[in-house]
Amino acid sequence: MLATEDLTRGGASAEIIQAIRRLLLTQSGWKLSDLYAIGVVCGPGSFTGTRAGLATAKGLCEAADLPMAAVSRLEVLADAAAMSNGYAVLDAGRGELYVRDISMGSEWLCAASSLRVKCQGNRIVVAETRLLNHLEGCDTILQTLHAADSLPAVLRRLRKGGSDVAISDANYLREERDIYPKPAGVNV
User: What CATH number is attached to the domain comprising 152?
Assistant: First the structure.
């Protein structure tokens, strides 16, 4: 049996432990020792969300001696769109994009203008509506993401032998304020 739960954007670090309790105890009646493995999305994304997710998953895995499968959010996006080639793209803030070449599995950070040149003839899947304007003229589709979308990638990673956490750097992890625009009229 597999279980997932979507958490509130910007509030995941405060909600994660209660969500795990709900999933394990309330909804399934499981104990931590009943699990086979734990899967986690390791970015790209906000520093706080990525850090909280990885730290929680790693702590639970250590406590229960479980394997952990860490997967890229870009890989999850490609899976959710059922794409085997083209590009998966997420907003990196600061006018930049996180990009995954789906067939090659490579990921990088680039400007939207650079991707528009490179994308000619290739389909691009995005998870954020605001990226459609940045990639105008490209063959772009919008795919919403949910926690359950990570399951195929997590299962693939477990079949390959568990954790394969990507090395994260400052370009892969961004502060929430750099990724999500602040509401109009709000001064931070």
Answer: 3.30.420.40
